[in-house]
């Protein structure tokens, strides 16, 4: 089985500042990290580090940043299918980090918003029935809907993470098999939390619903059962990327065992997410391939 993650890629530039610039001000800062980011890329990197054959389909511009993105992706055990968009800028995040560790982030989405479903269709031509199609909330409404439809047409299993939150997500449920969402997303999209949110989504035809509950762990619900798994204990340093780690490891755990999401997949996911929250950063905080290999071998 192969996972196709269709989503965004960004270059994340961190600048360390004493305070945020006020309107009209010009301030000095220090260069911090220069990282690869974007939810699509985060999820693809973790899935690939789990040893699952993974293809990342992501849009870039034809600019200098695209070359950096290509170069950085070569360090990961991924197949990369970048769609180069003529005249567009590659997406980037500028992260202002304050001395107390708080962040203020500005992200551009020109590439993500201009990825077309026809460009993605060409990249999915080798997909087999049963392969995973994994999407998040950064692409345009129309492209997200069409790509989910194409994936269904290819008899792929569709998994969706409705983040960053957009109002149109509730239109997509009929095209989604598996959803992963946190408590805020569940409340916004279903008007409910916990088991009531899961029931709302199952009634709309989803096969598996996974609600992540931060330090409370997670719930997996389907037509047969509801399984609650507590979070794995962690000394929390930075929770950024916890949700991406969790989703990718849960999907990879079940895909590697050729089964549907189950308790073991969620147990693997909470352990992996506990590693991510115990380290600073996003991709630099993700578990490594050897860590994931050891974790996924746990019974
Ligand atoms: P983020 O946006 O920060 O990436 P999220 O909001 O999508 O995360 P959460 O529900 O906050 O998702 O966290 C995902 C998973 O990470 C949780 O289900 C849990 O397993 C783990 N996790 C999050 N916070 C903690 C914590 N304080 N201690 C241990 N595990 C945690």
TrEMBL record:
InterPro entries named in the record: Carboh/pur_kinase_PfkB_CS, PfkB_dom, Ribo/fructo_kinase, Ribokinase, Ribokinase-like
CDD domains (alphabetical): ribokinase (cd01174)
Domain Carbohydrate kinase PfkB: 5-288
Positions contributing to K(+) binding: 238, 240, 276, 279, 281
Pathway: Carbohydrate metabolism; D-ribose degradation; D-ribose 5-phosphate from beta-D-ribopyranose: step 2/2
Cofactor remark from the record: Requires a divalent cation, most likely magnesium in vivo, as an electrophilic catalyst to aid phosphoryl group transfer. It is the chelate of the metal and the nucleotide that is the actual substrate.
Main location: cytoplasm
Family named by the database record: Belongs to the carbohydrate kinase PfkB family. Ribokinase subfamily. Belongs to the carbohydrate kinase pfkB family.
PANTHER family according to UniProt: RIBOKINASE, SUGAR KINASE
Protein name (Swiss-Prot/TrEMBL): Ribokinase
Record organism: Phyllobacterium myrsinacearum
Gene name, Swiss-Prot/TrEMBL: rbsK
């Amino acid at each position: 089985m192969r996972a196709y993650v269709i989503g965004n890629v960004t270059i994340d530039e961190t600048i360390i500042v004493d305070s945020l610039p006020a309107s009209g001000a010009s301030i000095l800062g220090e260069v911090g990290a220069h990282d690869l980011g974007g939810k699509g890329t985060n999820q693809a990197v973790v899935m690939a580090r789990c040893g699952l054959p993974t293809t990342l389909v992501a849009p870039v511009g034809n600019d200098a940043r695209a070359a950096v993105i290509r170069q950085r992706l070569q360090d990961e055990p991924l197949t990369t299918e970048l769609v180069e968009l003529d005249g567009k800028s590659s997406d980037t995040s500028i992260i202002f980090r304050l001395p107390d560790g708080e962040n203020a982030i500005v992200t551009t989405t020109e590439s993500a918003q201009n990825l077309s479903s026809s460009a993605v269709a060409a990249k999915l031509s080798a997909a087999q029935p049963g392969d995973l199609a994994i999407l998040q909330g950064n692409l345009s409404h129309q492209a997200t809907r069409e790509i989910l439809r194409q994936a269904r047409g290819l008899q792929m299993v569709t998994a969706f993470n409705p983040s960053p939150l957009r109002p149109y997500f509730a239109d997509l449920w009929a095209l989604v098999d598996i959803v992963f969402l946190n408590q805020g997303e569940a409340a916004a999209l279903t008007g409910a939390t916990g088991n009531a949110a899961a029931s709302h989504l199952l009634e709309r035809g989803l096969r598996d619903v996974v609600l992540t509950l931060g330090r409370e762990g997670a719930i997996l619900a389907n037509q047969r059962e509801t399984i609650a798994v507590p979070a794995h204990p962690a000394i929390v340093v930075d929770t950024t990327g916890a949700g991406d780690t969790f989703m990718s490891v849960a999907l990879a755990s079940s895909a590697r065992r050729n089964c549907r999401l189950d308790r073991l997949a969620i147990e693997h996911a909470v352990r992996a997410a506990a590693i991510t929250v115990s380290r600073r950063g996003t991709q630099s905080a993700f578990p490594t391939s050897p860590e994931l290999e050891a974790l996924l071998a746990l019974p």
